[in-house]
Design goal:
Shape: globular
Mean pLDDT: 94
Strand content: 15-25%
Distance between the termini: 25 Å
Number of strands: 9
CATH superfamily of the largest domain: Ribokinase
Function: Catalyzes the phosphorylation of hydroxymethylpyrimidine phosphate (HMP-P) to HMP-PP, and of HMP to HMP-P.
CATH topology of the largest domain: UDP-N-acetylmuramoyl-L-alanine:D-glutamate ligase
GO cellular component, one term: cytosol
Pathway: Cofactor biosynthesis; thiamine diphosphate biosynthesis; 4-amino-2-methyl-5-diphosphomethylpyrimidine from 5-amino-1-(5-phospho-D-ribosyl)imidazole: step 3/3
Catalytic activity: 4-amino-2-methyl-5-(phosphooxymethyl)pyrimidine + ATP = 4-amino-2-methyl-5-(diphosphooxymethyl)pyrimidine + ADP; 4-amino-5-hydroxymethyl-2-methylpyrimidine + ATP = 4-amino-2-methyl-5-(phosphooxymethyl)pyrimidine + ADP + H(+)
CATH class of the largest domain: Alpha Beta
Number of helices: 9
Protein name: Bifunctional hydroxymethylpyrimidine kinase/phosphomethylpyrimidine kinase
Largest sheet: 9 strands, mixed
Number of domains: 2
Radius of gyration: 17 Å
Helix content: 25-40%
Length: about 270
């Protein structure tokens, strides 16, 4: 029998979460659930659990570069997702490597963990703005990351448009401003500057939300690798994340993870 064709290939460039709820681990679980082949370039190792981040150790930039090149030169890449990049040298290396890949890239500009632990050095923020965001097909900041990147404080739904305009000025093709921390319905704004799409969903009263941002960005990348355009990919990713969030479960003594395998457990795949 002939071999099965390879599925679409997605590379995540991010930190490792030893608790398995976010970071590289969440990315690879999401990619598997959505039918793509996940590959990884680890930027940092964290000692992390449901209570927070106890330690962070960055890999040398050359190690990050070598991982990216090993994957790209042999296997190939149909889409990229970036997460925790930690330091200015790592952000710079990733931006330069992405320039040669020619694949759509989803940038999750991770600044702090779910527990408030800093995951991006202060001197890396400007490199992220000037070198990485211009490479992004989609950038997916939450409201804290909007403030970090633009200085804009989003307090209501009308501020989403102002924040998105400021982010688009930094060079990404599309911006998805995640308004999940606003009161009322969960409202996100997706825009490329000419098309505005408001994604509104009923707020789920859930405690176990660890890994939500990583999961969303990875799901978008998976759908882009499968050939979807950006609006279609974002809508499909939102549907997946909403299901994962609804199925989140307690783990440890703190914030539990979303359920990346909810589709399988629900019998829909």
């Amino acid at each position: 029998m002939p071999p099965n064709p390879a599925p679409p290939r997605v590379l995540t460039i991010a930190g490792s979460d030893s608790g398995g709820g976010a970071g590289i681990q969440a990315d690879l679980k999401t990619m598997l659930a959505l039918g793509v082949h996940g590959m990884s370039a680890i930027t940092s190792v964290t000692a992390q659990n449901s209570l927070g981040v106890q330690g962070v150790w960055d890999l040398p930039p050359e190690a990050v570069r070598a991982q990216i090149r090993a994957v790209a030169d042999d296997i190939g890449v149909d889409a990229v997702k970036t997460g925790m990049l930690s330091s200015a040298p790592i952000v710079g290396v990733v931006a330069r490597e992405l320039a040669g890949l020619g694949a759509p890239c989803v940038v999750d500009p991770v600044g702090v963990s779910k527990h408030g632990d800093p995951l991006l050095a202060a001197d890396a923020v400007d490199v992220l703005r000037t070198e990485l965001l211009p490479r992004a097909t989609v950038v997916t900041p939450n409201l804290d990351e909007v403030r970090l990147l633009t200085g804009i404080e989003v307090t209501d739904e009308t501020d989403l448009h102002r924040a998105a305009a400021a982010l688009l000025a930094l060079g990404p093709a599309w911006v998805l401003v995640k308004g999940g921390h606003l009161p009322g319905d969960a409202v996100d704004l997706l825009t490329d500057g000419s098309t505005d799409i408001l994604l509104r969903a009923e707020r789920l009263p859930r405690e176990h939300t660890h890994g939500t941002g990583c999961t969303l960005a990875s799901a978008i990348a998976a759908h882009l690798a499968r050939g979807d355009d950006v609006p279609t990919a974002v809508r499909a990713a939102k549907t997946y994340v909403t299901g994962a969030l609804a199925a989140g479960f307690p783990l440890g003594a703190g914030i539990g993870p979303v359920d990346h395998g909810h589709l399988t457990r629900a019998g829909t795949v």
